[in-house]
Amino acid sequence: MIGYITLGSNDFDKAKGFYDAVLAELGARRGMAIDDRMQFWANDADMQMFGVCKPYDEKAASVGNGQMISLFAPTRDLVDKTHARAMAGGGTDEGAPGLRGDTFNGAYFRDLDGNKVCVFNMG
């Protein structure tokens, strides 16, 4: 089981504002912060956390080819709203909300640093 995920950012303050809005759609809010390098969000439903950080080695954050973070949304409506919030906040569309297969409803975007994120619902 995943405990937490972090994505690197080259503009930490902008990334925090972007994810404040995007993750609010999923019921998450800011939680633990570590110095001025890392910020986490969580909701009350589980212990998993999502975070953004300034890379520890102080080199530029970069995007991995083939890596993607997926966030669960309890309803299809929240998939749509979360994707729309990402687009409104300056994210880049990587796949509009919709069914892929019979039961997987997903939407894809890249955040302000180019990290690929999927928001999905099953059923």
Describe this structure as you would to a colleague.
- The chain has one domain: 2,3-Dihydroxybiphenyl 1,2-Dioxygenase, domain 1, CATH 3.10.180.
- It is of the alpha/beta class and 123 residues long.
- The chain is globular and about 45 Å long.
- The model has no long low-confidence stretch (mean pLDDT 93).
- It has a four-stranded mixed beta sheet with strand order 1-4-3-2, with helices on one face. Strands 5-8-7-6 form a four-stranded mixed beta sheet, covered by helices on one side.
- It has helices spanning 12-24, 76-88; strands at residues 4-8, 29-34, 38-42, 49-53, 69-72, 92-100, 104-110, 116-122.
- The chain starts with a strand and ends with a strand.
- The longest helix has 13 residues, at 12-24.
- 28% of the residues are buried.
- It contains two helices and eight strands, in the order E-H-E-E-E-E-H-E-E-E.
- In which range does the helix fraction lie? 10-25%
CATH fourth-tier homologous superfamily:
2,3-Dihydroxybiphenyl 1,2-Dioxygenase, domain 1
Largest sheet: 4 strands, mixed
Proportion of β residues?
A: 35-45%
**Count of DSSP-assigned helices:** 2
Global outline:
globular
Class by SSE composition: alpha/beta
Write the H/E string, N to C. EHEEEEHEEE
Total strands: 8
C-alpha termini separation: 21 Å
In the predicted model, the low-confidence regions spanning at least 5 consecutive residues are none
Assembly category: single chain
CATH architect. name: Roll
Average pLDDT figure: 93
CATH fold-level name:
2,3-Dihydroxybiphenyl 1,2-Dioxygenase, domain 1
Rg (C-alpha, Å): 14 Å
CATH class: Alpha Beta
